[in-house]
Amino acid sequence: MLLSGIALLATTQASLAINNVTLSRQDSTQKSDSISVADLKSLIKASPHLQIIDARLLKDFDRTQVIPGAKWRDPTQVTQWAESLDKTKPVVIYCVHGHKVSQQVVDHLRQSGFTALRLTGGIEEWKEQKGATVKLK
């Protein structure tokens, strides 16, 4: 679903506009820290500066099926790798189902000043909705 613009909710509840597309502040779960698969697909097309992090636990990680452009980062080490992210660019985090693991990473990043969202339904919802996957190099 292409909306009139993409905007991501910042921790201060300010919006970050990206390429004339607006994301809803809330997804179907009514959580303001998430992004739907459809909206992420639109955002990927519209924004080359998006930072996508695969935060699946190592035991759940499958390097043959990641969202294009994603980098895997150990969610238990978020304090260390967050320093390598650009705070001026939005970050989308996903795990297997988009619950506890990605939520904890998003919470940490937001507390550190990032505009961060978790993918509703995680990689499983992404694949169910025919989102492209690639092998992580």
Overview of this structure, please?
This protein has 137 residues and is of the alpha/beta class. The protein has one domain (26-128): Oxidized Rhodanese, domain 1. 24% of the residues lie in helices and 18% in strands. It has helices spanning 37-46, 78-81, 100-111, 122-128; strands at residues 6-9, 15-18, 34-35, 51-54, 70-72, 91-94, 116-119. The strands form two sheets. Strands 3-7-6-4-5 form a five-stranded parallel sheet. The protein has a two-stranded antiparallel ribbon with strand order 1-2. The protein starts with 5 loop residues before the first strand and ends in a 9-residue tail after the last helix. 36% of the residues are buried.
Helical proportion?
10-25%
Quickly give the CATH architecture. Answer: 3-Layer(aba) Sandwich
* CATH classification class: Alpha Beta
Query: Could you report the average pLDDT, rounded to the nearest whole number?
Result: 81
User: What is CATH's topology name?
Assistant: Oxidized Rhodanese, domain 1
Put the structure in a nutshell.
This protein is α/β, with parallel strands linked by helices and 137 residues long. It has helices at 37-46, 78-81, 100-111, 122-128; strands spanning 6-9, 15-18, 34-35, 51-54, 70-72, 91-94, 116-119. The strands form 2 sheets. Strands 3-7-6-4-5 form a 5-stranded parallel beta sheet.
Entry keywords:
two-stranded antiparallel sheet, 137 residues, Oxidized Rhodanese, domain 1, alpha/beta, disordered N terminus, five-stranded parallel β-sheet
